[in-house]
Specification:
The structure is a single chain. The protein is α+β, with helices and mostly antiparallel strands. The chain is about 25% helix and about 20% strand. An eight-stranded antiparallel β-sheet has the order 3-4-8-7-9-2-1-10. α2 packs across α4. The longest helix has 19 residues.
């Protein structure tokens, strides 16, 4: 393939957005079981985190906050680098631009596990699972060294806005093509938590690309179009007035606050 660009191929594969939107799930109430306080120069934001629903995400956030993963508290001194009124406030980038992370990524925890899937890819839902659980991790890991056939299939999916190009082969064939033979793939179960007002969610650049960046939702009726795309791992229980104050700051290019909004410290209470 001439002038192949893996990043472009991944961006083209937006058919996953359309398929996920068709997989709406019933909202349910969630209780937090761990408390943290984000201290900012605008005031304190108190959150309950959902360890039971998103154990890896909560553990990652807590370990970054405490310095367990990096040797020193990761979030202290970082800014809220992206603020959009009536939508969300976003922070957690060490570069202050939305381009950085902790040096690793990990998987989403949006849905409960469904049934294992195998055999012929014969539906849009199954194609989406192959795309998210097999092809995306493979492309992210291998970059320019990715299998040409896989790259062309992903690009075609993006161009057609459909998972149809992935149909015909079996799940096992895709696992073998991407050197992931033996990996178990599961269909989606129920949505664990909705992207609602006051929730804290992981920011990402696509499926299973979580790192350190997060956002807190300020849209009163929530962001249903983001359900299943961003792991919800907690909610604000005190300090939404501070969140609102942050969302109201003046912004410049790329929605970056003109006045620095600083995360002074993240305190893990229990």
């Amino acid at each position: 393939m001439k002038n192949f660009n893996v990043k472009k191929a991944i961006l083209l594969a937006v058919f996953s957005v359309l398929l996920t939107a068709c997989n709406a799930q019933e909202k349910k109430s969630v209780k937090g079981d761990k408390t943290v306080i984000i201290k900012t120069n605008k005031g304190d934001i108190k959150l309950e985190l959902f360890s039971e629903l998103a154990p890896k995400t909560v553990a990652n956030f807590v370990d970054l906050a405490s310095g367990k993963k990096t040797g020193k508290p990761f979030y202290d001194g970082l800014i809220f680098h992206r603020v959009i009124k009536d939508f969300m406030i976003q922070g957690g980038c060490p570069n202050g631009t939305g381009t950085g992370g902790p040096g690793y990524t990990f998987e989403d925890e949006c849905y409960e596990d469904g049934q294992p899937i195998s055999g012929k890819v014969d539906s849009q839902d199954k194609a989406l699972q192959v795309f998210q659980e097999i092809l995306m991790p493979y492309l992210q890991k291998n970059g320019q060294n990715s299998n040409k056939e896989i790259v062309e299939l992903v690009t075609e999916c993006g161009n057609k806005q459909s998972g149809e190009p992935l149909m015909g082969k079996t799940v096992e064939e895709y696992l073998e093509l991407t050197d992931q033979k033996g990996k178990k793939i599961y269909g989606k179960g129920k949505l664990k938590a909705a992207v609602d007002y006051g929730t804290i969610c992981m920011a990402n650049s696509g499926p299973n690309t979580n790192g350190s960046q997060f956002f807190i939702v300020t849209k009163k009726d929530g962001c249903d179009w983001l359900n299943g795309k961003h792991t919800v791992f907690g909610k604000v229980v005190d300090g939404m007035d501070v969140v609102q104050k942050i969302q109201d700051v003046k912004t410049g290019a790329q929605d970056k606050p003109i006045e620095r909004v600083v995360i002074e410290k993240v305190i893990v209470e229990d």
